[in-house]
Design goal:
458 residues, alpha/beta, Four Helix Bundle (Hemerythrin (Met), subunit A), Rossmann fold, 434 Repressor (Amino-terminal Domain), 3 domains, 8-stranded mixed sheet, 21 helices, 8 strands, binds guanosine-5'-diphosphate, binds magnesium ion
Length: 458
């Protein structure tokens, strides 16, 4: 996703990291590189200019905080400005609510209805899908198929052509314990007919959220579309679909953010699992492939992990007092491109000649495993993530169902987690290991440390 933008920005980052000193010329070159990268990703000219102007101003006028190198400080500025270009994250309530999906034909409403249903189901909530698209032939069947796949009920009235009647009937039931997701019909364009239909449905449903579904492939035009829907019926957020296949993703994302409507989720594939909650900062960190733990940790303040926090995490890991929530964060960080590779490379035994092949297989397996683990963790409730000990019996079945894996796989995750906790506890007295970890997490080793780093496990 957004591969070209990621690639060119990574090159920019490399260039900064490598330059020995940063002067006005370097900054100007950097700003030109950023502009080029953004424009190539279809970001609107005005936005690209604004971002690069702010980077330039800050890079030339602000001083790095004590202890931070000028290079990392510049990286931090670029990272912050790119993230702010994409707006602020929107909170998603994890409780029963009514969500109305709107958008034009083919932008991905029905698919996204299924993906959202899956998202809430994984959080342990009961979901109802409501088929209100009476326009497109086969729309109801499409939603029913999705419902079947997820074992989620779908409300429909066969042969009824008036979406208002469908919704009216649905609302007569007691739906207070459900997340109700209304899949409405689109048109080829936002015409009077569609506006009128949406207004009637909005009044009747009285939704907690109205999400506009926009296809990323329309690029910058997403701005106009978001504005038009905002004015016509009001929207509380935007879901941008098909970011997996679009070279214009940067254009769509930044254009929507410019309207002030938050991007809530992004669709990154056709599968029902291919939906990601959108947090601009984490998103940028990921596409920048902040594969370098050091840069990541220096920027970690922004990821809500200041130096003290980092230290605490290390301490927490060592004491074995971590829960699945911490584990999720750790897994999320190490599953970013390049990070796992780097961690492995830093382990001496992984660098024996001839071990490349083993490394690669091991890496691939690990990445796949982490991916699956994250899906399983997504199916857990907050309470379970915080207290893994309560995960037993029926909870295991529910989590397995939610994640689409076997109960055995959930048990393996729990076992792996417990082993990890034990291993970390075992590392407690091992100063060498602690130092390595600290180094990975962004602290320089000084020569002193290296000299006395050999005092083993006891
Ligand atoms: N690659 C990709 N395809 C998607 C995504 N979201 C939806 N689609 C595809 O877009 C097409 C239209 O989706 P649909 O949900 O029927 O759109 P609707 O007319 O707005 O309800 C379908 O073929 C979906 O599989 C996405 O995030 N990535
Ligand atoms: Mg549809």
């Amino acid at each position: 996703m957004l591969d070209t933008l990621a690639e060119s920005l990574k090159d920019v980052f490399k260039k900064i990291t490598k330059s020995s000193s940063i002067d006005k010329d370097t900054v100007e070159e950097l700003v030109r590189d950023i502009q080029r990268a953004l424009l190539k990703a279809d970001v609107k000219v005005q936005i690209a200019l604004d971002v690069s102007r702010r980077v330039k101003e800050r890079a030339l006028n602000e001083k790095p905080p004590p202890g931070m190198s000028i290079q990392n400080f510049i990286l931090k500025i670029v990272y912050e400005e790119l993230a702010s270009m994409l707006g602020k994250p929107k909170d998603i309530r994890l409780s029963p609510q009514k969500i109305m999906l709107v958008g034009l034909y083919g932008h991905g409403k029905t698919t996204t209805a299924g993906k959202l249903a899956r998202f809430f189901q994984r959080k342990g909530l009961s979901v109802y899908l409501v088929a209100c698209d009476t326009h497109r032939p086969g729309a109801v069947e499409q939603l029913e198929q999705i419902g079947d796949q997820l074992s989620i009920p779908v409300f429909s009235l066969k042969g009824e052509n008036d979406p208002v009647k469908i919704v009216g009937n649905y609302l007569k039931r007691d739906i207070s314990k459900y997340v109700s997701i209304f899949d409405t019909s689109g048109r080829h364009s936002l015409n009077e007919d569609l506006i009128e239909e949406m207004k009637k449905l909005k009044e009747l449903i009285n939704p907690d959220e109205i999400f506009l579904i926009v296809d990323a492939t329309i690029g910058q035009q997403a701005e106009k579309q978001a504005m038009a829907f905002k004015e016509a019926i009001g929207i509380t957020g935007v879901i941008i679909t098909k970011l997996d296949g679009s070279a214009k993703g940067g254009g769509a994302l930044s254009a929507v953010a410019a309207t002030g409507a938050p991007v809530v989720f992004i669709g990154v594939g056709e599968h029902l699992d291919d939906l990601e909650y959108f947090d601009p900062k984490r998103f940028i960190a990921r596409i920048l492939g902040l594969g370098d733990m050091k840069a990541l940790m220096e920027i970690s303040k922004e990821l809500n992990m200041d130096e003290e926090e980092t230290e605490k995490t290390v301490e927490k890991m060592m004491s074995g007092k971590i829960n699945l929530k911490d584990m999720y964060d750790i897994w999320e960080q190490i599953s970013r491109p390049g990070i796992l590779q780097k961690l492995f490379n830093s382990l001496p035994m992984m660098n024996i000649p001839g071990s490349d092949k083993i490394n690669k297989d091991f890496m691939d397996q690990s990445v796949e495993k982490i991916r699956k683990y994250r899906i399983i963790l997504d199916s857990m409730t907050n309470e379970e993530l915080e207290n893994p000990d309560i995960i037993k019996g029926s909870r295991i079945s529910r989590i397995a169902r939610g994640a689409g894996v076997s109960e055995e796989e959930v048990r393996i995750l729990l076992k792996d987690f417990n082993n990890m906790v034990k291993m970390m506890k075992g590392m407690k007295g091992n100063r060498k290991m602690i130092k390595m970890l600290r180094k990975q997490m962004g602290k320089e080793l000084n020569e002193d440390d290296i000299g006395s780093g050999n005092d083993g496990n006891n």
